[in-house]
Amino acid sequence: MSKSIVITSAGTDGLRSAPVRPDWVINGRPETRSRELARSHDRTSQARVWDCTAGRFNWHYTQDETLVVLDGEAFITNGDGKEHRIGAGDIVFFPAGTSSKWHVPEYIRKVAFLRHTMPRPVGFGVLAWNSILRMVWRTGASPLVMTLLCDSPY
Questions:
Q1: In this structure, what are the phi and psi dihedrals at residue 79, rounded to the nearest 5 degrees?
Q2: Rg, the chain, Cα only
Q3: Same domain, yes or no, for 82 and 53?
Q4: Is residue 1 part of a domain?
Q5: How far apart are the C-alpha atoms of 150 and 129, rounded to whole Å?
Q6: What whole-number distance in Å separates Cα of residue 133 and Cα of residue 125?
Q7: Which of 5, 52, 4 is nearest to 24 (CA)?
């Protein structure tokens, strides 16, 4: 299967409605939109652009999410009740299984990098596989061997 580098823009063109679940909205009428920018070959990770208008809502993270704020601001309250202001240039990490309260005074736009988590034993297996690939690569294995190892459907 062919792989290629993805170069795209995190602008607002092509964003589609991605509403906050109604039972998560605390007040206001936040309008959220989103668009996929890229997805990993194994479909466990993706990058998305997301924006939101004014409102307050809860958010529950089912995947690890790292975000970079591009425009606007929000106030995020974490599980221990501490509020943090985030704005353009800020980077935030939310582990899967956590929750936060968002207050968007006017508008915010972010790029989010989402990753499905895996059980720890599977993670160790992936690390071992990556180590094997690095060792094979260092030994000067032919490109054919690397292609067979890396593009295996298994």
A1: -60, -25
A2: 19
A3: yes
A4: no
A5: 10
A6: 12
A7: 52
Amino acid present at 89: G
Cβ–Cβ < 8 Å for 35, 16: yes
* Rounded alpha-carbon distances, angstroms, from residue 122 to 39, 130, 136: 20, 12, 21
78-104 confidence digits (pLDDT tens): 989 999 999 999 999 999 999 999 999
Which residue is listed with tokens 């899967």?
A: 96
The identity of residue 49, as a single letter, is V
DSSP string, 1-55: ----------SSTT-EE-PPPGGGEEEE---EEEEEEEE-TTSSEEEEEEEEEEE
Q: What CATH number corresponds to the domain at position 50?
A: 2.60.120.10
Instruction: Please state whether the predicted TM-score (pTM) of the whole model is above 0.85.
Output: no
| pLDDT tens-digit readout, 99-137 | 999 999 999 999 999 998 877 787 777 778 777 777 777
